[in-house]
Amino acid sequence: MVSAGQQVWQSRDVAGAIGLDEPITAGRDAPVREHVRAGLDVRLRAMVRHDPGTRLGEDPEELHQMRVSVRRMRAMLRSGRPFLDQDWSEPLRAELGWLGRALGPVRDLDVLIDRLRQETADLDAEERAAAARLLSGLEVEHGEARFELLAALDSDRYMTLVQSLAAAVRSELPGSDLDGPDELRRLVDKEYRKLRKAVGKLGDDPSDEELHALRIRGKRLRYTAELAESALDVKPLLKAAKRFQDVLGEHQDACVAGQRLRDLLRALGDGADGTVAFVAGRLVEREEARRRDRRAEWPAAWQDLSNAA
């Protein structure tokens, strides 16, 4: 395991590897690739800024913000793909995907563990002890995921990725010089049409998996609109897309939490006494109630997003 002192030293080295000067900006009429470049610059700086806190692991928000930065850089490269040299952009996007997968398990467990701890806070002492036994497997899993995360951040592969991103924002990105606003509007409209088509294919009672896929579509629309924010008036769309994403995200969180609780109970086997089983059932029912509530709420969130598009 890497010590705290080693983590901070490595983080300073990462920050030094960027070597950027003033922040990059893209004017309203700049080519799409310049908007991508400006977006990468903002998110790269944020990623490195949250690197030290992610390594230390004392504040889960640090990892959350680092992961968001990675996701949005990847999304920018995806959205701007028609206007970029894909021989350059796709390998970089793939490496960001690797980093996102390294960060994801710890972040997901941070959210799940915090969620379930809050849910058990109002139980009596005996039930809280039973809940601790139920959730102990998540703590072990979290420790293992943290080890993998730190190994990724201390790897040459991570440093190479940081340096590649820094090199990208220092100079013009390879790709098309097509005008900015019109092309950005087409990108946003394209993502909206994909989302609208996906919604139209849903039946009256979509599955949990279909709603999760819809959330991913909504996230892509939101991130594409963020790319266009400096050239287009997309604030109403961004607000509506965030709500749509949040509602479906909470639905997915409830689905995942319910299933993980069932898995944890099964994993305990004979070690799950009546109190543990009771607590697990109580927590699962709460997650089921949340899942039903968000399922009923998402059509209104979609209508708001459709009106804003």
Automatic annotation (TrEMBL):
Keyword check for S-adenosyl-L-methionine: no
Coiled coil: 106-133
Keywords for the protein's UniProt record, in alphabetical order: Coiled coil
Pfam families associated with the record: CHAD
Residue ranges occupied by any CHAD domain in the UniProt entry: 29-307
Top-level taxon in the UniProt lineage: Bacteria
InterPro entries, alphabetized: CHAD_dom (IPR007899), CHAD_dom_sf (IPR038186)
Keyword field contains Coiled coil: yes
Name the UniProt record assigns to this protein: CHAD domain-containing protein
Biological source species: Saccharopolyspora erythraea (Streptomyces erythraeus)
